[in-house]
Amino acid sequence: MNNTAQQDVSALSFEQAVEELERIVSALERGDVALDKSIEIYERGEALKKHCEALLKAAEDRIEKIRLDRAGRPQGVEPLDAE
User: Fold this and answer.
1) In whole angstroms, what is the distance from residue 46 CA to residue 70 CA?
2) Which domains does the chain have, with CATH numbers?
């Protein structure tokens, strides 16, 4: 995949990338795409998948858990995975 196509993927929102990935999967499952085109869209699908995974990881990293004091009142936040 060329750099221009890769840059196009990085500019997509999560929702846009998932939508395009669903279209690619559908086209590949139908089997009505020529071999060369199948390889091309498969590679784009891989780039879209990686992009979605990166966006999900970034979102997970931003999620915080509300910390409560002994009385149950919010006291602050901490990373979701912190114990």
Assistant:
1) 48
2) 10-71 (1.10.287)
Helix (H, G, I), strand (E, B) or coil at 19: helix
Nearest to 55 by CA among 22, 23, 25, 12: 12
Convert the pLDDT of each residue in 6-32 to its tens digit: 668 999 999 999 999 999 999 999 999
**Model confidence, pTM:** 0.71
**Coil, strand or helix at 34:** coil
Q: What sign results for the dihedral spanned by CA atoms 36, 37, 42, 44?
A: positive
**CB contact at 8 A, 78 and 50:** no
pLDDT in tens, 39-52: 999 999 999 999 99
